[in-house]
TrEMBL record:
The gene is thiI. This is Probable tRNA sulfurtransferase. ATP binds at residues 183-184, 208-209, 265, 287, 296. InterPro entries: Rossmann-like_a/b/a_fold, ThiI_AANH, ThiI_fer, ThiI_N, THUMP_dom, THUMP_ThiI, tRNA_STrfase, tRNA_sulfurtransferase_ThiI. It comes from Mesobacillus boroniphilus JCM 21738. Belongs to the ThiI family. Its EC number is 2.8.1.4. GO terms for cellular component: cytosol. It catalyses: [ThiI sulfur-carrier protein]-S-sulfanyl-L-cysteine + a uridine in tRNA + 2 reduced [2Fe-2S]-[ferredoxin] + ATP + H(+) = [ThiI sulfur-carrier protein]-L-cysteine + a 4-thiouridine in tRNA + 2 oxidized [2Fe-2S]-[ferredoxin] + AMP + diphosphate; [ThiS sulfur-carrier protein]-C-terminal Gly-Gly-AMP + S-sulfanyl-L-cysteinyl-[cysteine desulfurase] + AH2 = [ThiS sulfur-carrier protein]-C-terminal-Gly-aminoethanethioate + L-cysteinyl-[cysteine desulfurase] + A + AMP + 2 H(+).
Length: 402
């Protein structure tokens, strides 16, 4: 028997109140985009679940796509059957035989939202369990840890039969919770921070600071490649490339060496905040993890954050490096991030950076030079590109990138 639909469960979306439909509509759009290569499907969104009507399309290929979409708690390939007991039993047996292997155990899980159906849940379990046992050899029941859990759901319009519950990515639909600007270096941490922010429903745009000739075109390309990986989540990713050379040269000329890192981060934050305002963002996202490097102590964060009142989201703040690397491997950004092309932060790191900078001191050092003109020049000179996933990018055309 061929599956004719996939039942999608919302999970966290189900806890939403009056604005639930907004999240459901965003999830529907995200699923439609992700499944654009399956033109025959139809998506039917309801308040408590969603159905993807396959219309002959490959259920396995679609399932692989659905696993990566934020907002889906779980899903099940299923068949829709008329609420006739004999037809339901025939369909359940046909589906079971398709997936059963000798020696496996099973159980029946019934759910009856239509209370007018002739059997209650215990009756459904007994009737269908007995039917399967009578018609399939070498089979035992295991209600605690079965190899196959045959699920039978009786709803008002029909019965639905499935035998798999596939875990989804969870979270909230991408681009359902406002926009944030991700300070995207070429390292391991910031792409992971962007990915986790997307999982909470944020629309994320990247801001990268580029300092030629101290940083190379290959370093810039690395960030573009990372952006294309992040674009897999929502079908596109906007990246802002900030010219930063002149500012870094001024910092190293005007600021004592052990405070250059602090001032660099403060000016990066000011520039990111200005770009955020232009793009209608509501937050700034960083890949900071507490105590990993000198700029990520609480004292440093306190001194750096002073330049803005915009909320700063730090998804990795309590994670250690191994946890972050595990996620980077999972989302396929790790190998790009470890390419040996340095970004402007690593090129200009002082030999002894201040790990507990004083806010009054850094303010004093910066007061002797007016950085405002350079900041405005950098914001105005920022290059913006909209990148598609590498898997969807046309090799011979860049028309769609801008």
């Amino acid at each position: 028997m061929m599956y004719d639909r996939i039942l999608v469960r919302y999970g966290e979306i189900s806890t939403k109140g009056r604005n639930r439909n907004k999240f459901i509509d965003r999830l529907r759009k995200n699923i439609k985009r992700a499944l654009s290569n399956y033109p025959n499907i139809a998506i039917k969104a309801e308040r408590d679940r969603m159905f993807i009507l396959l219309n002959g399309e490959d259920s396995y290929g679609i399932a692989e796509k659905l696993k990566e979409i934020f907002g889906i708690q779980s899903f099940s390939p299923a068949v829709k059957v008329e609420k006739d007991l004999e037809k339901m039993k025939d369909a359940a047996l046909e589906l079971f035989r398709k997936i059963h292997k000798p020696g496996q155990t099973f159980k029946i899980t019934a759910k009856r939202s239509d209370k007018t159906f002739e059997l209650d849940t215990n009756g459904i379990n007994s009737e269908f369990g007995g039917h399967i046992l009578r018609n399939v050899d070498d089979l035992k029941v295991d209600v605690r840890n079965p190899d196959i859990n045959l699920q039978i759901e009786i709803r008002k319009e029909a019965a639905y039969i499935s035998a798999e519950t596939i875990k989804g990515a969870g979270g909230l639909p991408a681009a359902s919770a406002g926009k944030g600007m991700l300070m995207l270096s070429g390292g391991i941490d910031s792409p992971v921070a962007g990915y986790l922010s997307m999982k909470r429903g944020l629309e994320v745009e990247g801001v990268h600071f580029f300092s030629p000739p101290f940083t190379s075109e290959r370093a810039k390309q690395k960030v573009i490649d990372l952006s294309e990986k992040l674009a897999e989540v929502n079908g596109h990713f906007a990246l802002h490339i900030v010219p930063f050379t002149e500012i870094q040269q001024a910092i190293h000329k005007q600021i004592p060496e052990n405070y250059t890192m602090t001032t660099t981060r403060r000016l990066m934050l000011r520039i990111t905040d200005a770009i955020r305002e232009k793009q209608g963002g509501l937050a700034i996202i960083t890949g900071e993890s507490l105590g990993q490097v000198a700029s990520q102590t609480l004292e440093s964060m306190y001194a750096i954050n002073e330049v803005t009142s915009t909320p700063i989201i730090r998804p990795l703040i309590t994670m250690d490096k191994l946890q972050i690397m595990d996620i980077a491997h999972d989302i396929d950004t790790h190998d790009i991030s470890i390419r040996p092309y340095e970004d402007c932060c690593t090129v200009f790191v002082p030999s002894s950076p201040k790990t507990k900078p004083k806010l009054d001191k850094v303010q004093n050092f910066e007061s002797f030079f007016d950085f405002e003109e350079l900041i405005q020049k950098a914001v105005e000179g920022t290059e913006r590109m909209v990148l598609k996933p590498a898997s969807e990018r046309k090799d011979d055309s860049t028309d769609d990138l801008f």
